[in-house]
Inverse folding.
């Protein structure tokens, strides 16, 4: 542990020499604004904050950290949901919010080159005039950064068809935890040597900082249709999902919400979903116009056959946006119907979805803890929201138990402890539920190859004794971003 | 370097205790059958060969190697094209040919689980009755192993639309170079922790041996149409490719061959391509029937507009197979028109294709060395075949120079030194053309995290002084597999 002489505050003059006076934050009140990310249970005030603007500045900051044994934590927009950007009082927080330049849009090669602080949706905005978009679309895409997406290997509703972030990154410039600037890949599809892009994407800031990112652009589909189907029960909705996949349709997205999630979304954004639904299914189809039309008919018929009592179609952007608004707002909106809740994230093979949802219902009934389900049904990626009242003695503990038990269910059913939100500090202690000692030791060896001194986002991802026993992330009350109009945060 | 007492031969009794008497090959004549892979320039007789049948046996073999400091080289079917499976006289060759079990075909989850020795095409054969296939399709798919595909991150004609091997692997059981059995991923789409699958795939045997592989199965398209278009010049063919991509069509494959490659293919397999073509383009379209029909019309019109003088369509499997036979046979068939040739493999951003091909023509004209071009045009993945007569003094050297200059062209144009054949021993010394010292040092750190003693396929992939200066792989005369009916090897 660095002392005051070598700790982050002592580095301030040298950091100012690198990033300029306005690129270094030492004021306690300003530092406090970085104390947590998308979940507010974890918080810590960073020892010092730097706002570099160039790769050279990032490398110089990291080299200073390495030289003095000071840990650093990278941070994009701070919308993460597993505490991956949780600062350290003894460390430097490296914030990429001044690195927001779209460097190049190369349409003939279908690539964009961006700085890490660029907002996800801004890549699509830059490509849209050319008929392209950037496919990975986490619900927070208006404000989350591409660098953060790299760290978490972010998904989104459309990764069923288009894949995760890792499938869309072809080149990276990174600053390693020793301060070296290294290039991985480029614009061409497959680079020789180790595909370190694959492992850097999703490494949650523990292998360094991406300073320039080359992503694949995807041609905007000729037509996109969105279908909203209401079912009496989750079971009926699940049958529809299975029937759609079995019929060989590959929708761009298949999202499901249960009654409680629908109730929350209605309360927050009045999305106008059919009343009395036990489950709402959103199916998005995209591609060539006639193809989409044919699939749309097929999906409608399959939903009806599975018991849908209402099916609504949307082809125009405004109506589609209205359908999506409910879904994208659901997480944050749950604060309207519960004083506090845990945002859980797990994944199971799609065929296990029905079984796992039934077990979650049982867990909920037995514990008296309500669970709202919002999920990427096509991927088997569950997002249970575990609701409780933290004024009620013992409720938080029971909620944490239910939340943990859901992860056990996922692992039991051949799935994993996180679908797309990452491990961060939140799930580091759950890693041994999935991985053997050999598995974890291999990961640690790999980490140490990049970061021999353990200064890059330490105590995230891999379990350390200090962390285990902490509770998962809890949101209390309505999320502040719902009120401010940024409801589609998660 | 191990001496006779601790070298591979001394391990024979202990290896027999692990793999059984018939699982260990010490006889020099039998060992010699493993001396090279798909290119015959490099050869070395392995110190000893083992043929394990289970994960436990592979782990026990590797632990013995680790204990005694003996290097090991993994080998699948030996169809590689960069000398990645080149044995070592001082090492153990671990051959997976007895690990050919398809463990599970899980249609509801769209996955297959296979042992590493399973032939690529046998995954598709196992899935076909259910309407599925395994998408990555190197030309050698009848005989190459899935384990070898993992090692090389193999592509194939259809990776334009479907991606490389890495996009189709969701789970791996590996034996690390220290003999630990480690699981990466599974059937679910995204696992927490480091995505070591991404980096293991394409690591060319330097990080251990995959012993169980979980792959994604892809639904067979409703319809597949193949179009063969003949152009007067390569330029005209290239214009057609650009027009197709710019029109927003995403074909399953876009392959191009020049006049010399067509001549060789005709001589070998009489594929009946139109006479007098300066370039032949093969475009495969797949998807929903009406979609394919519409795209087919569009592609035909674009080819005609770019100057195609003949366009031939094939919908039925027999006619499609005939079109593909010429393409898939082209590499091996070049032996019919040249006593010797170098198989080169490079990649450039698609937009640079025209410029690079023109420069290759200039190189060829200036040096008097003929170059036949066969390539995945949609991906920008070139496979120039550099022809020469090794009876002619100095020809081999000039061919090697041309071949090396082609790689320089690829790097200059923002591409890379290998598209899909890997680095192996063949291109290890070219790595510094693409990567800085920091880049290579980072790769080496990563390698050593898995393999601290440097026993896993040493001297492959990363440059070592001993290797540099060697010539690229050369094939002399007609490849033996053309004569034996396995012409579609590469």
């Amino acid at each position: 542990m660095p002392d005051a002489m070598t700790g982050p505050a002592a580095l301030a003059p040298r950091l100012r020499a690198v990033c300029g006076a306005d690129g270094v934050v030492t004021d306690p009140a300003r530092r406090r604004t970085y104390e947590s990310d998308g979940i507010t249970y974890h918080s810590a005030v960073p020892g010092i904050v730097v706002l570099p603007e160039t790769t050279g500045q990032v490398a110089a900051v990291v080299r200073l950290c390495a030289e003095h044994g000071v840990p650093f934590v990278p941070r994009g927009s701070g919308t993460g949901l597993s505490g991956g950007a949780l600062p350290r009082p003894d460390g430097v927080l490296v914030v990429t919010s001044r690195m927001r330049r779209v460097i190049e849009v190369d349409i003939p090669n279908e690539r964009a080159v961006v700085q890490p602080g660029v907002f996800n949706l801004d890549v699509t905005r830059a490509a849209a005039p050319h008929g392209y978009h950037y496919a990975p679309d986490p619900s927070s895409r208006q404000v989350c950064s591409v660098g953060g997406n790299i760290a978490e290997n972010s998904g989104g509703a459309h990764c069923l068809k288009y894949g995760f972030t890792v499938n869309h990154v072809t080149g990276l410039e990174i600053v390693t935890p020793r301060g070296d600037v290294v290039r991985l890949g480029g614009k061409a599809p497959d680079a020789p040597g180790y595909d370190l892009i694959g492992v850097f994407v999703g490494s949650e800031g523990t292998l360094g900082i991406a300073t320039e990112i080359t992503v694949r652009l995807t041609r905007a589909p000729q037509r996109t249709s969105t279908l909203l189907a209401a079912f009496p029960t989750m079971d009926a909705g699940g049958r529809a999902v299975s029937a759609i996949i079995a019929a060989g349709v590959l929708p761009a997205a298949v999202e499901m919400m249960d009654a409680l999630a629908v109730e929350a979304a209605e309360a927050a954004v009045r999305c106008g979903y059919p009343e009395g639904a036990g489950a709402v299914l959103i199916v998005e189809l995209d591609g060539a116009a006639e193809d989409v039309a044919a699939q749309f008919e097929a999906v409608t018929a399959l939903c009806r056959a599975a018991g849908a009592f209402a099916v609504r179609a949307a082809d125009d952007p405004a109506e589609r946006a209205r359908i999506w608004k409910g879904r994208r707002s659901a997480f944050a909106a749950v604060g309207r119907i519960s004083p506090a809740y845990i945002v859980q994230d797990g994944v199971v093979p799609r065929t296990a979805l029905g079984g796992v949802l039934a077990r979650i219902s049982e867990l909920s009934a037995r514990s008296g803890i309500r669970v709202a389900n919002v999920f990427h049904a096509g991927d088997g990626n569950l997002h249970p929201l575990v609701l409780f009242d933290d004024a009620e003695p013992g409720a938080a503990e029971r909620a944490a138990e239910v939340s943990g038990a859901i992860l056990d269910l996922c692992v039991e059913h051949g799935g994993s402890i996180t679908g797309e939100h990452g491990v961060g500090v939140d799930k580091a202690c759950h890693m041994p539920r999935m991985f053997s000692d050999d598995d974890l030791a291999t990961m640690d060896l790999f980490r140490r190859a990049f970061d021999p001194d353990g200064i890059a986002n330490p105590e995230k991802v891999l379990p350390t004794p200090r962390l285990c026993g902490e509770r998962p992330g809890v949101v209390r009350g309505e999320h502040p971003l719902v009120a401010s109009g940024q409801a589609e945060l998660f």
Chain A has four domains: 8-98, 102-219, 223-419+479-483, 428-471. Chain A touches chain B through 80 residues (CB under 8 Å). Confidence is low (pLDDT under 50) at residues 469-473, 478-490 of chain A.
